[in-house]
Amino acid sequence: MARAFLVVMDSVGIGGARDAGAYYNRDLPDLGANTLAHIAQACAAGRAEEGRSGPLCLPNLDSLGLGAAMRLASSVPFSGLTASATGRWGCANEMSPGKDTPTGHWELAGVPVPWQWHVFGDQTPAFDADLSAYVAKLAVTDGILGNCHGSGTDMLDQFGAAHLQSGWPICYTSADSVFQIAAHEERFGRDRLLALCEAVAPRLHAMKVGRVIARPFVGDCETGFTRTAHRRDYAMRPPAPVLTNWVQNAGQTVHAIGKIGDIFSMEGIDTVDKGPDSKLMQDLFDRIETADDGSLTFANFVEFDSVYGHRRDVAGYARALEWFDAELGKLLPRLRGGDLLVVTADHGNDPTWPGTDHTRERVPVLVAGAGAGPLGHVGFADVAASIAKHLNVANAGTGRSFI
Asked: Helical H runs in 332-371?
């Protein structure tokens, strides 16, 4: 029986979204944002030399059709990535409103988001007094810190010292539909932080805030503060059964790698492997060796987004892409006959773009195990439909198979 592997390169967009002008990083619309093309431009111009050098080198992704998909998605010029594709390739367009992680993943899993997410205004305070007081009450503190838009590392720089002194949680948001709580693993307590986020989540979900995210960190004022790998997302449940449910309900196994379990609130998931991307890649290799016939392995590699995209670190993003590509080159020969591997993304996060938020973009769809040639423009939900067809389970979503 066939197996399927769905791998999401978090935030690796390829530009060209038809409605990018309706999405913003502060006052600038996302029109023209292109995560991969702009990284390739920077590399070719020698502007991404920290820890790497020269043009962006992604031979294995390119051999699956990455360069061809980029040129299909957008007219933004870039050099290189001109290999003749040996896989199926195309670009996917998103129907759902939003440019965040649950939106992209739910639609990739067959279910577009049927509502507008609640987004907190970019002002200080960002949260109304009732919500702030509610969080403080659950935290058993006299108040909260932050209460604004910001990136995680900036929040630690601004409020880390005050947090150590007061014990108050650092609460912040972004252009996405999120409520994030940062707290020191020792001063506040990791388990206490997770319990706080779990308790707060139902109220935020009722407001159509997509995720409450626990952001534990360590360190001190002298050495600096560092976020740990113990992040936890408390996401709303999808509004209908998704790909993972379809596979599990058919009696087949679903393995989650990375934050997939959090994104889908463990809907239809049998096993979870978590950790930094380097560990997750080994977990993916292990599943390629051991996953049962008929299984789905659904993986998310988040550090493109969380470590490099939001921090607008072009060289770091390029290094991460080249690392991923090298690992993919080792992985592809290990696929069995009958396996299907789909490599895609959930949104963009152009590290050359002003601001610190995601960018609304099309995403690549690269397929190994289904022959070679163009797929053209497809929908996010078509990914789920195609995997369902490959695994011989019923497609209960909105997409149509491209294989």
From this structure: none
